Amino acid sequence: MFSKNNLIKIHDWLWEIPLGARPGMKVPARIYATEKMLVEVVRDRSLEQLVNVSTLPGIQKYAIAMPDIHEGYGFPIGGVAAFDAESGVISPGGIGYDINCGVRLLISQIPAKDLEVKKHELARAIYKEVPSGVGKGGILDLRGKELDAVLEGGAKRMAEMGYGASEDLKHTESEGRLEQASAVLVSAQAKARGADQLGTMGAGNHFVEVEAVEKIFDKAEADRLGVFEGQAAVLIHTGSRGLGHQIATDYIKVMLAAAQKYGIALADKELACAPFKSDEGQRYFKAMCAGANFAWANRQLITYEVRQAWKKVFGDGGKLDILYDVAHNIAKVENYKINGKEKTMVMHRKGATRAFPNQPVIIPGSMGTGSYLLIGQEKALEESFGSSCHGAGRRMSRHQAKREISGSALKQELENEGIVVAAGSMSGLAEEAPTAYKDVDEVVDVVHNAGIAKKVAKMKPLAVVKG
After folding, report:
1. Of the candidates 99, 5, 140, the residue with the CA atom closest to the CA atom of residue 349
2. At what angle do helices 144-160 and 279-314 cross, to 10 degrees?
3. Residues 6 or more apart from 410 whose CB is under 8 A from it?
4. Which residue, 130, 91, 440, 12, is CA-closest to 267?
5. 459, 214 in Cβ contact below 8 A?
6. In the chain, how many H helices and how many E strands?
7. pLDDT digits (tens, 9 = 90+) for 219-232
8. Concatenated DSSP letters of 182-248
9. Which residues have C-beta within 8 Å of that of residue 416, sequence separation ≥ 6?
């Protein structure tokens, strides 16, 4: 286990575990956090996991953790790592089981005060339109070539089917499609699990949340993005559902064998990997891209469903535009300068999101707290491979939260604060209680003060819809 004594302070928001802190490190490990936050970070294995990442072949500059860091599978959640595309590896543990879990922010022209009297009706309408919960199916059941077209077409395919417009794609990371995707490399079992899950939210920390823009930090950026104080908005958080989970399950087995085949010494078997250029590495990457496309298609169909609910409540005057959609469990091929020379990288972001200059960064908090809209900064390209945190980050396990928190009491507490809750499970609600998460204000302040992403606006929840 690593402790605060292993950390060297770079500045108030950045710390480093130096090269040589454990055998096999190829680069230092860095964590964005305040000194106060480190007290909680060292309580689990997340720093040990981060150092383990630093031992993988081809890693460049640093293994990085964001301030929402907590223990995950292989990589810590909040982990970022860049691997040389020629000599480095790809690891499912650095992407996660919920491939392209991500967030999408929709904005309206309706003032939130006009929504206040209709938020109960709106929450019920969204809950009815967007299927949620473990195993819940959606309005589509796609199989064979129809499903393959989604796996390779992503959100674009949904738009072609009438569930969106080309304008939606312009406001989605990678326009909602990774062209390297191959449906052939996705197993029949994964396809069976995803066949009827498009347009569904799932359970866990996934949600659709109606928001009000509470505070503007940067008016010029807010104006550019079409955001104003008191504006009503909707935040969607979900991913690739059972299909993505099965892709990860399938290929972790492949990677365990591949690591042995290529003589890769693993500090943790959960970091099972293969050279990116190898047959196994390319097969996984193309299957993962298909999973990512499925997730973008899923959020696109949910957007259609939310728009239907919105229209039922507000009529033709109600309109929802996509401000942006960003992924936070994904591997992407990107170019960065290393020692003055441009290199092609396989960027792993697990519970971390892109923070490219002038690109929106969306960081949801927990129920009852708030969410943030930021803008990526140039410094992120220099320091964090264009990456930021993806949320508040857990401080309490799901099991602990269920033991300590009453879902029904939490629901009542939130509603006393004016937050409408529509949820299918009280135990599921307890898992996502605000006290189970870090303080999102502190987490966001770290990336803002570190110069990775700049705060633009904070949103407060009006209604939460969960599985």
Report:
1. 99
2. 50
3. 367, 429, 430, 433
4. 91
5. yes
6. 15, 19
7. 999 999 999 999 99
8. -GGGS-HHHHHHHTT-TT---STT-EEEEEEEEEES-HHHHHHHT--TTEEEEEEEE--HHHHHHHH
9. none
Cα–Cα distance, 60 to 418 (Å, whole number): 47
Catalytic residue IDs: 390
**What is the tens place of the pLDDT at every residue in 14-73?**
999 999 999 999 999 999 999 999 998 988 999 999 999 999 999 999 999 999 999 999
Distance (Å, whole) CA 417 – CA 421: 11
Structure tokens at 31: 């964590």
Summarised one tens digit per residue, pLDDT across range 311-364 is: 999 987 679 999 999 999 999 999 999 989 999 999 999 999 999 999 999 999
- In whole angstroms, how large is the CA radius of gyration of the chain? 21
Of 44, 108, 85, 361, nearest to 218 by C-alpha is: 361
Two structure tokens written together for 12: 């108030």
SS3 content of the chain, % helix, strand, coil (to 5): 40, 30, 30
Task: Give the C-alpha separation, 294 to 213, whole Å.
Answer: 30
Tokens of 5: 């004594």
pLDDT tens by residue, 286-322: 999 999 999 999 999 999 999 999 999 998 767 999 9
Phi, psi (deg, nearest 5) at residue 197: -105, 0
Report CA dihedral (204, 207, 211, 426) to the nearest 10 degrees.
Answer: -60
Please report the DSSP string for 131-187 in residue order: --STT---S----HHHHHHHHHHHHHHHHHTTS--HHHHHTBGGGG--TT--GGGS-
**What global pTM score does this model have?**
0.95
C-beta of residue 296 within 8 angstroms of C-beta of residue 177: yes
Q: Are 60 and 345 in contact (CB under 8 A)?
A: yes
Whether the Cβ atoms of residue 436 and residue 395 lie closer than 8 Å to each other: yes
pLDDT tens string 86-121: 999 999 999 999 999 999 999 999 999 998 899 999
